[in-house]
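Re: [ENG-882] Designed sequences occasionally contain unexpected residues at chain ends

Forwarding the minimal case from QA. Structure tokens:
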């Protein structure tokens, strides 16, 4: 089997490469490196001792895509490529819509030309908005509040509309909860540009001395300790979820949607405590006001994926904190300069 991974040099894509290569799947990556480095793929190759075909370029480039499909029998596409920062999406919405929507549309058009009908899409729990109850199942109502989230929901809608007239396709929408952690080797991990927006990369950068102290966004939520609760999923578990989703493509089962989460929520303070204990480090923090757009609690009901994909997250919060720190402490400047 040969798969094309768009955005495969990025955080989730690079971890997924490992799982696919370990299954002897041939991997072709297209990435414009706008938010990643080729070093991630070099390291994936050294971890797995397997080769990846890498094409540097933009998924919206039709001719480039044609040349990839022309060259070889691509059996399916996992579409990771996209811009993903919520705050930035409010600043430059057109770039988000252009990048995140046109990449999908272009891909689908070229896949049709080459009769490739297997597609896995990186969606997000952000499509559930502020859920009325918990845990979240796949049939919950969908709503979004920012351009990034809207591109995810619009992509889902495009794929649902497309499938209505192309029901010989196999499409899997994977709704990720909060991907965190790093490969246990410490060789690949999350390498955010500038100051991280997300909790765990912020904590690891405080721990490594790049940032002063963590700002905890609110301790007055309706949660046991007042801080926000999220479903943090180890990126290796998430990557394995993609490998598991391939079954749906193989048996030809139409359009399927899965939550990829652990089913368990942890608060910000629980994350800080666990990180400190597991790594024997002190994390300075202060409570500040809530971040606009944040919700109190969000966690998945992953039972559909457990049952239909025979997939379950196995790593716990301690593994997450250990592996995130292993990556950060060994690569204080991410892929740019390593010790
Ligand atoms: P990432 O930024 O590390 O990876 C995305 C990759 O896509 C990058 O390597 C980037 O260079 C590339 N890219 C972007 N636009 C491109 C284009 N037009 N052509 C070619 N390459 C392009 O992000 P990630 O965390 O690995 O996320 C992967 C996907 O999962 C994204 O679609 C993201 O929205 C989605 N997602 C991520 C999270 C998360 O917290 N990380 C949560 C839910 C969903
Ligand atoms: C954010 C995005 C969401 C995206 C997800 C995964 C927002 C509003 N939402 O979700 O769309 O799908 O990332 O990429 O940006 N926190 C702090 N201090 C920090 C950072 C975070 O206290 O410096 C808290 C937050 O308030 C939240 C929790 O930590 O309670 C997790 O935050 P974060 O990692 O940013 O993820 P989400 O807010 O769930």
């Amino acid at each position: 089997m040969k798969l094309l991974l768009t955005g495969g040099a990025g955080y989730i894509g690079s971890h997924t490469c490992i799982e696919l290569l370990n299954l002897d799947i041939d991997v072709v990556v297209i990435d414009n490196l706008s938010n990643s480095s080729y070093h991630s793929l070099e390291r994936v190759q050294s971890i797995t001792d397997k080769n990846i075909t890498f094409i540097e370029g933009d998924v919206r480039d039709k001719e480039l895509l044609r040349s990839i499909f022309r060259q070889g029998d691509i059996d399916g596409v996992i579409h990771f490529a996209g811009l993903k920062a919520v705050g930035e999406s409010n600043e430059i919405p057109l770039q988000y819509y252009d990048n995140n929507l046109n990449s999908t549309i272009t891909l689908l058009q070229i896949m049709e030309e080459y009769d490739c009908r297997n597609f896995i899409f990186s969606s997000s729990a952000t499509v559930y908005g502020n859920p009325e109850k918990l845990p979240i199942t796949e049939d919950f109502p969908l709503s979004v509040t920012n351009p990034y989230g809207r591109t995810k929901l619009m992509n889902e809608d495009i794929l649902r509309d497309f499938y209505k007239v192309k029901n010989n396709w196999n499409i899997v929408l994977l709704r990720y909860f909060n991907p965190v952690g790093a490969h246990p080797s410490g060789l690949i991990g999350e390498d955010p540009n500038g100051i991280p927006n997300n909790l765990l990369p912020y904590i690891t950068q405080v721990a490594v001395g790049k940032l002063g102290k963590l700002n905890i966004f609110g301790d007055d939520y309706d949660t046991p300790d007042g801080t926000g609760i999220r479903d943090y999923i180890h990126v290796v578990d998430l990557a394995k979820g993609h490998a598991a989703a391939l079954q749906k493509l193989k048996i030809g089962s139409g359009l399927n949607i899965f939550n990829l989460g652990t089913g368990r929520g942890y608060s910000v303070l629980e994350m800080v405590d666990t990180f400190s204990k597991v790594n024997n480090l002190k994390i300075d923090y202060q409570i500040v006001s809530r971040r606009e757009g944040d919700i109190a609690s969000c966690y998945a009901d992953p039972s559909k994926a457990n049952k239909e994909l025979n997939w379950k997250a196995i790593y716990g919060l301690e593994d997450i904190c250990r592996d995130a720190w292993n990556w950060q402490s060994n690569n204080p400047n991410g892929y740019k300069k390593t010790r």
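QA comment: On inspection the terminal residues look reasonable. The pocket of nicotinamide-adenine-dinucleotide (ligand 1) is lined by residues 6-7, 9-13, 30-36, 58-60, 80-84, 99, 103, 122, 124, 176, 179 (CB under 6 Å). Proposing we downgrade this to a documentation issue.
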